[in-house]
């Protein structure tokens, strides 16, 4: 079986999805179902105190018994905030160690602050977390994160929520070729072909939220993404043909086209 | 009277209270929450023992939708 293995645990799906930006938890749940994802990201936020006590809880719609939850540090701009958020997440999820680390550097681009990310990763790994880490597509940063002990390297394909697709396949390729842990594209996927390309390049998986949640029909897009990830992975495993620049090669027989001049000598 | 900062907001309490009492007063019982007190995680098992005192800073969090 061709499975994705992260921190020793096996997953059938190579598509990881977020739970943000949906109309309600019913849509969230339906989209996750359609995507086939087994790993689902959640954010950690302050709860309302003393108001709206009947507010529905995300974890009732996305139960930890059914999905592997991946708490993130979205919105954290310092290593201190990120580390504290994930300690809270671990407590919230009963000792669950698998986390997504992101330390942002700029609210406009949501580009990661790699200096803080590297420091935070080091602390979290020492504290026993299995860290899947959001990173720039810098191959050196990716290597350093792997050396620290992160269990998955997750470079951006383009800015978070931009839907701009894979802007630098060459850097992704270098990261993939060098990494011994899974590499997942995190951020930037806009439509199914982007996800397929990521897997064709050799990425082990893709994590996305906005591409599904902000589609006109999120549940249909979730289904499309599931197929794209499967198709991309199969194409990667199948090994694509070599590109032949400026050289055509017909697929049909060259001989026997009607009304063509025969070169065969029949000796009559 | 003591003053606590809870999720960034200042709140007054007549007397020191345990975390469990705080949870019950604010209808958070049975909710899936995690609590940090002055930057340190408070394990659920200690909610009934830890007494909140003047100047304590609490963060009370839940899981929400995110990517």
UniProtKB/TrEMBL annotation, chain B:
Coiled coil: none annotated. It comes from the Bacteria. Transmembrane segments: none annotated. Pfam families: ThiS. NCBIfam families: thiS (TIGR01683). PANTHER family: SULFUR CARRIER PROTEIN THIS (PTHR34472:SF1). This is Sulfur carrier protein ThiS.
